Amino acid sequence: MIKDVFILLIGFIALIKGADIFVKGSSDAAKNLKVPSVIIGLTIVALGTSAPELAVSVSAALQGSNEISVSNVVGSNIFSAYVFENI
């Protein structure tokens, strides 16, 4: 049990650190390319946050689990529509 909590905490720390590195890198890329940061936010960051869903959908489709692939896309869109529209 303590081992599981420790692994969970390490995972959260890695997630937060990775997110910081990703945002800083995106910001630096915008400055270096002399592109407004909003453009980077709408493209690179959006692609980065959608990559795990894309990987799951493609992997499921290649394994013949079309239901999982479609459910992942539909579920993600429904969640985004209901949660982020209210923010």
Automatic annotation (TrEMBL):
<keyword id="KW-0472">Membrane</keyword>
<dbReference type="InterPro" id="IPR044880">
    <property type="entry name" value="NCX_ion-bd_dom_sf"/>
</dbReference>
<protein>
    <submittedName>
        <fullName>Sodium/calcium exchanger protein</fullName>
    </submittedName>
</protein>
<dbReference type="InterPro" id="IPR004481">
    <property type="entry name" value="K/Na/Ca-exchanger"/>
</dbReference>
<dbReference type="GO" id="GO:0005262">
    <property type="term" value="F:calcium channel activity"/>
</dbReference>
<dbReference type="GO" id="GO:0005886">
    <property type="term" value="C:plasma membrane"/>
</dbReference>
<dbReference type="InterPro" id="IPR004837">
    <property type="entry name" value="NaCa_Exmemb"/>
</dbReference>
<feature type="domain" description="Sodium/calcium exchanger membrane region">
    <location>
        <begin position="5"/>
        <end position="82"/>
    </location>
</feature>
<dbReference type="GO" id="GO:0006874">
    <property type="term" value="P:intracellular calcium ion homeostasis"/>
</dbReference>
<dbReference type="GO" id="GO:0008273">
    <property type="term" value="F:calcium, potassium:sodium antiporter activity"/>
</dbReference>
<dbReference type="Pfam" id="PF01699">
    <property type="entry name" value="Na_Ca_ex"/>
</dbReference>
<keyword id="KW-0812">Transmembrane</keyword>
<keyword id="KW-1133">Transmembrane helix</keyword>
